[in-house]
DNA sequence: TCTCCATGTTCAC
DNA sequence: TGAACCTGGAGAT
């Protein structure tokens, strides 16, 4: 599942490519047919991400709320204008159209959070139309709009850009009041809330809970956007035992975790990758970036030696999710 | 072709 | 606390 960084990238993609444009909406799969009919023909007016939720506003105060859940993904096709605040990890941002505008790079790696497909990692279809002169056909002869492949819950189409939504946990229309109620239930998000205020909210909640810090970090009402990968990595970086009750975690460590999340989220949004070993030396960093299976301190490293102490990384189940940690560094 | 798996949430018990 | 939901890739058969 895309953690918070991906959802912010998606929102920025929508902001750049859909906001201000009239959208044609459909539900090829049929499960969002009524909603798509209501959206179709309206202009998109805003795109926002809060935690793992994305909100897309349309004319007449109609909001689309999407949560990708475990399997969801957006595939973008067509002419994709890249938000200048996000980049591909390998820097392949070179394609430009005849107006000199950046187009989407081809995949940054195995599809993880590339600009063309954002969500659950999967093989990606990339269609990049180079200019309006080629409207109707992509440069390589692709159809326009692209043929529907698989279970597409919602297709949003402008004259130049196509976004296909697959497998979301939530895809619903909301009123402004409902959007506000949804957001009110979420914990602070460093890219939405003032980071200093967020730190205070996060610290106050964690410090009064008997629940383990590992569960609290995954609780979206405590902090927005953290998922299983960032949880494991944040706890390792803090050298904190995942089972420590929140109220027993020293305040300075709680604040350190928040500030680390602020930092990692910013890196994730910028690069599209959950790089958590940013404090490596440059050579080791480049190596880690090149190999997505070797990019974390503990996540998916069960049984492998800890990168710091050599102790075997432990894998256990906590609330039906896999938890990776080093029993020595995080004793 | 079948089974398992995954970066998640919600609901019933 | 555990099951259901959801989708497609990967590996086993």
From TrEMBL:
InterPro entries: FPG_cat, FPG_N, H2TH_FPG, Ribosomal_uS13-like_H2TH, Znf_DNA_glyclase/AP_lyase, Znf_FPG/IleRS. One of its GO terms (biological process) is base-excision repair. SUPFAM superfamilies: Glucocorticoid receptor-like (DNA-binding domain), N-terminal domain of MutM-like DNA repair proteins, S13-like H2TH domain. GO terms for molecular function: class I DNA-(apurinic or apyrimidinic site) endonuclease activity; damaged DNA binding; oxidized pyrimidine nucleobase lesion DNA N-glycosylase activity; zinc ion binding. Its EC number is 4.2.99.18. Residues 2-100 form the Formamidopyrimidine-DNA glycosylase catalytic domain. Keywords: DNA damage, DNA repair, DNA-binding, Glycosidase, Hydrolase, Lyase, Metal-binding, Multifunctional enzyme, Zinc, Zinc-finger. Gene3D superfamilies: 1.10.8.50, MutM-like, N-terminal. It holds the Pfam family Fapy_DNA_glyco. Its cofactor is Zn(2+). The keyword Glycoprotein does not apply. SMART domains: Fapy_DNA_glyco (SM00898), H2TH (SM01232). Residues 297-331 form the FPG-type domain. Belongs to the FPG family. This is DNA-(apurinic or apyrimidinic site) lyase. It comes from Microbacterium saccharophilum.
